[in-house]
Amino acid sequence: MSKILIAEDDPGIADFIVRGLKREGFECELTDSGAQAFARAHSGDFDLMVLDLGLPHMDGADVLEQLRLLQVSMPIIVLSARTNIADRLRTLEGGADDYMPKPFQFAELLARIKLRLSAHAPTPTDARVLRHGALELDLRTQKVLVDDSWRDLSRREVDLLETFMRHPGQILSRAQLLRLVWDMDWDPGSNVVDVYIRALRKKIGAQHVETIRGSGYRLL
């Protein structure tokens, strides 16, 4: 049974989530304090956290940032009334696995929780090492082997490279990459994909990621 930490200071929303998850067979623990959410999330007792950004004592964005700095890899789904694209991008780039604006439907939250738990579930060792051409990506250590040298990648760089390696030879558009890596709908004003492509090229070599003008990118 998966154990979920819910950090939400609105009693009505918190009760709504807890009752729904318990009906689905999940074990839940609730906190309405950012500081306590950070302490409990860092304990290693939970499989996933649902995190509100507007928490007292410690803002949810700070909770997220500090947990990722401490390399806590537990999936975190953010709930927030902050719905503008800048806040969404900042939260996702800060390490959130998903972002749901309020108000929300419980069925959608449940689906996203199940998806993140499934993606985070242990897999056989050989499935955690991906190979494509001269590249070898170790998902456990967040390192890529290039020219006989292991290089560290950020969390999002790993997600981006993994997406390319699971779609060998396929041209992936910016919209597809936003959806697959950041779980976001297409926003023509966002340059987050281009920023991370440049960062990835610096790590693995520009020759490995081809730009297909007007279409997107492809891993060579």
Automatic annotation (TrEMBL):
Residues 3-117 form the Response regulatory domain. The modification 4-aspartylphosphate is found at D52. Residues 127-220 form the OmpR/PhoB-type domain. Keywords: DNA-binding, Phosphoprotein. Gene3D superfamilies: 3.40.50.2300, 6.10.250.690, Winged helix-like DNA-binding domain superfamily/Winged helix DNA-binding domain. GO terms for biological process: regulation of DNA-templated transcription. InterPro entries: CheY-like_superfamily, OmpR/PhoB-type_DNA-bd, Sig_transdc_resp-reg_receiver, WalR-like, WH-like_DNA-bd_sf. GO terms for cellular component: cytosol; protein-DNA complex. SUPFAM superfamilies: CheY-like. It comes from the Bacteria. GO terms for molecular function: phosphorelay response regulator activity; transcription cis-regulatory region binding. Residues 127-220 bind DNA. This is Two component response regulator. It comes from Corynebacterium callunae DSM 20147.
